């Protein structure tokens, strides 16, 4: 896959196009199936989100639906959104009765508002850098009053920094309430290479 083969290439980063070129969607899903069959826990993100008593959930950057499908299996009302139509098609094939949508996180206007927006993958690293602030702002606009954004992504030396994430959240009316190093709630230490952060929409936010 190159940029001309990806229908939304203008809205994603070259990094995403490179990653998609390197993976086969069926193999990507099969890897998690093999891990689960071997007795590994592949639902750490869903466990974390479930423990939050999340209410309605928007899975922003849902990919092939691994986490959204598990949340729905637990009785949670979840909508999955991703810009990659092929990945959304894979999610729909696995769970046709769930709510899926192909859309741009920076510009989508969904009819519903949610108690929780979840971004459990490296979504912010793969999006177009110029859109990052707009994505955070738009996700905040899709929250109900007092709603929360929970996000986890790798912290790279030359990537999207934690300071940038916090600045974008603050500018969008979101205040941090929790931060961990892993989805199993290991304490976060400055200089770590991964974070899981929960931000809440403050009164008067978007």
Q: Which SSEs are present, and which pair or pack?
A:
Layout: H1 14-22, H2 25-37, H3 44-51, E1 57-60, H4 66-73, E2 78-82, H5 85-94, E3 99-102, E4 114-119, H6 123-126, H7 132-141, E5 143-154, H8 162-171, E6 174-180, E7 194-201
Parallel strand pairs: 1-2, 1-4, 2-3, 4-5
Antiparallel strand pairs: 5-7, 6-7
Q: Pairing-aware structural class of the strands and helices?
A: alpha/beta
Low-confidence stretches: none
One letter per element, helices H and strands E, the order comes to HHHEHEHEEHHEHEE
- Domains (count): 1
Q: Using DSSP, what is the number of strands? A: 7
How many helices in DSSP terms? 8
CATH topology, which one?
Rossmann fold
Shape: globular
Main beta-sheet annotation:
7 strands, mixed
CATH second-level architecture: 3-Layer(aba) Sandwich
CATH superfamily: Vaccinia Virus protein VP39
Beta-strand content: 15-25%
CA-to-CA gap between the ends?
A: 37 Å
Supply the CATH class.
Alpha Beta
Proportion of helical residues: 25-40%
Mean pLDDT: 90
Quick overview:
This protein has one domain: Vaccinia Virus protein VP39 (Rossmann fold), CATH 3.40.50. The chain is built from eight helices and seven strands; from the N terminus they run αααβαβαββααβαββ.
Can you characterise this structure?
The chain is α/β, with parallel strands linked by helices. The chain has one domain: 3-Layer(aba) Sandwich (Rossmann fold). Helix content is 35%, strand content 22%. The protein has 8 helices and 7 strands. A 7-stranded mixed β-sheet has the order 3-2-1-4-5-7-6, with helices on both faces. α5 links the parallel β2 (78-82) and β3 (99-102). α3 (44-51) crosses α4 (66-73) and α7 packs across α8. The longest helix is centred in the first third of the chain and has 13 residues, at 25-37. The mean pLDDT is 90.
